[in-house]
Task: structure prediction
Amino acid sequence: MEVTDILRKNSTIVDKEINESLSEVCPGKLQDASKHLITGGKKIRPSLVLLSCEAVGGSVDSALKTAAAVELIHTFSLIHDDIMDKDDMRRGKPSVHVKWGEPMAILTGDTLFSKAFETILETGIDGVTYERVVGALKTVVDSCTKICEGQAFDMCFEGNFEVTEVEYMNMIYMKTAALIAAASKAGAILGGGTPQQVEAFEEYGKLIGLAFQIQDDYLDVVSSEEDLGKPVGSDIVEGKMTLMVVNALSKASPEDKKELISILKAHEDTDVGRAIEILEKYDSIKYTYNISLNNVEKAKKLLDVVEDSDAKQSLIMLADFVLHRTS
Amino acid sequence: MEVTDILRKNSTIVDKEINESLSEVCPGKLQDASKHLITGGKKIRPSLVLLSCEAVGGSVDSALKTAAAVELIHTFSLIHDDIMDKDDMRRGKPSVHVKWGEPMAILTGDTLFSKAFETILETGIDGVTYERVVGALKTVVDSCTKICEGQAFDMCFEGNFEVTEVEYMNMIYMKTAALIAAASKAGAILGGGTPQQVEAFEEYGKLIGLAFQIQDDYLDVVSSEEDLGKPVGSDIVEGKMTLMVVNALSKASPEDKKELISILKAHEDTDVGRAIEILEKYDSIKYTYNISLNNVEKAKKLLDVVEDSDAKQSLIMLADFVLHRTS
Result:
């Protein structure tokens, strides 16, 4: 099976679970807004929950509610982030706040957040022990706090060109990788993994989560407009801090640093080519790719804590997918 | 002990718990915003958790984390509501979005929401069974979804003068009473109450929660500017639907109905006296007070499911306080 087939298969069962969870939300307007973005995602996070549960010997059924919950949390954070960042489009559609207004979008995010925990708590009826459900819940809740903190750091970093690589990596860990780590960890807990397996799966998720975010920024520079669906270098136009930029700024000559900062501040697309030249001059693009590559290789190695299985093979393919995708 | 003493005593221990729960939130800006409104509230909800736990024979310690969580959830909903309703002041201070901006206020609400669940999940280490913790969690999560739905209904009702009393009561149940009911129910669960006691305590919370909201609106019309800290009738100026208004509109002659609606739409304070005259003409103020009174009497009666104790007496006093407060 190809990665895309695995994701599609999991997407079908997770979407069904999510739709069920949201079917009683009222009034109708709130339900519509809640379901708006659900069908659009790749479903990487819920797939990690299901596959991790299977890889440690558990059954997909035990992890289904938590898989749905993790996707609900991801969607909640997208909806609130889009309001904060004033992003008008999401998954090829108008953002929730564009379609229903900001107050309803805030409320929609809150509803998905609440429904996520409600959904995990329904696991009990499937016969999984309370201890495992509470373990999965703690894992997921902890990552939710991190998502908020990561977004706050990201906002605080805006216009700060002195951010260090350690600070940057910590920010993307909290904002993006923590939920991905929670997905694989919670799956391993629900599947009855040993403490050693649970720890390895959490680290696997963290590493591919970091690689995922780093590749996202890397692709913005090296991919094509066709694959990206938006112009190459749009992060540069937005003045966004990425690992490439943080790395280049730390190594560049005073002149190059000054020039790169002024391009990032300008918010115009005329000097994107020059910015990329500076990133290349200091090897920051290659440096960034190598970090992703190392993360993915380490992540795959961590899966040695479990016997070979289809689920394990799928997790290996998912790790590679993070690296080799073109958009 | 007076009600205010009971609330003050509980406030001290709950504030300490909340401050501990928020002490590791980072960056500092997010932590400051998270703590901004904590010290200002009356702490009725967490007091209900603690007293209900004690009243069924449990120890305050078992319920402390959940008491803190319920207050965190209440504060989260105030912060998001203030953004949605564009309320610039809260608890005598500038609202979170006024002080830190809307993006940070959205994030602050999300953080408190997440921290609330994190806090309940820490109960496990106090030696309460997983089953009770999960029961308390389910109760609280369920009320969170209702808070969101209630706020959405409230927004959808805006400018709709055909809202029925049943629809209105359902809205305030979801928006306000559900969390209060969850507080007393969760306390009873954590204290090891019987199913019959848990049910009675939930209903007690629901009834005083409804009375609380109805009295809030009632006081706006019958209290003094001095007690309220704002002009009498400001709900009328805002065009807010209250039980008094819903009741009067359902009984009024076509002429009076038309006049009341036009006053509510005008958003001016010149005709507040005339609006109150119409509410009085149809006995809607007295009608409303009687509903609160009945609710509180029924609520107190429900406490017969437990033996007499200081905690039970405090719950009776809290029910009366909802009715007899002047602001």
